[in-house]
Amino acid sequence: MDKIIITPFSEIAHREQVIALWHAVFGYEAAHNRPALVIGKKVAAADGLFFVALAGAEVVGTVMAGYDGHRGWIYSVAVSPAHRRRGIGSQLVRFAERALADRGCMKLNLQIMEGNESVAAFYAALGFTVEQRVSMGKRLPENIPAA
């Protein structure tokens, strides 16, 4: 197996591979989750919190993080099915966690989609615990392209 390198996302080098990976792993259907749109918005944020795992030149995993000065968020953790069970997901989460800690972040949050609770054990092994919260969301249609 190639050595895994985690590096910041590059629009030129990684974009198309990340889009393909996210389609394979997440199968996004909602317009606001389209990989090309999400990537564009994250790149525009220019926060340096989007990372890829590389095996050679191949993108085999991703993680995005966010930090608002109060809490950090981990999202878009994806590992290519052909590269799972090798610790890549754990490396990605820990890498993002370190990047957030370096910015002064004191607490991390993440959400698991209903029906995908099987990944809870993965996050529990990394020190995350289930918190009693109700997650609410609201889409702003003026910023979502038509499907």
Query: Uncertain segments of ≥5 residues (pLDDT<50)?
Result: none
Task: Determine the number of helices (DSSP H or I, runs of at least 4 residues).
Answer: 4
- Rounded to an integer in angstroms, the radius of gyration calculated over CA atoms is 15 Å
CATH architecture assignment name: 3-Layer(aba) Sandwich
Question: Tell me about the biggest sheet?
Answer: 5 strands, mixed
- Amino- and carboxy-terminal Cα gap: 39 Å
Q: Enumerate the strands of the largest sheet in spatial order, edge to edge or round the barrel.
A: 1-2-3-4-5
Instruction: Tell me the name of the CATH homologous superfamily.
Output: Gcn5-related N-acetyltransferase (GNAT)
Note the beta-strand portion.
15-25%
Query: In sequence order, what are the helices and strands, one letter per element?
Result: EHHEEEHEH
Class based on secondary structure composition and strand pairing: alpha+beta
Helix content: 25-40%
Number of strands: 5
Question: What is the CATH topology descriptor?
Answer: Aminopeptidase
Mean pLDDT: 91
The domain count comes to 1
Instruction: Kindly provide the name of the CATH class.
Output: Alpha Beta
The coarse overall form would be: globular
Question: Could you describe the 3D structure shown?
Answer:
It is built from 4 helices and 5 strands. It has 147 residues and is α+β, with helices and mostly antiparallel strands. The chain has a single domain, classed as Gcn5-related N-acetyltransferase (GNAT) (Aminopeptidase), CATH 3.40.630.30. A 5-stranded mixed beta sheet has the order 1-2-3-4-5. Strand 2 and strand 3 form a beta hairpin. Helix 1 packs across helix 2. The longest helix has 16 residues.
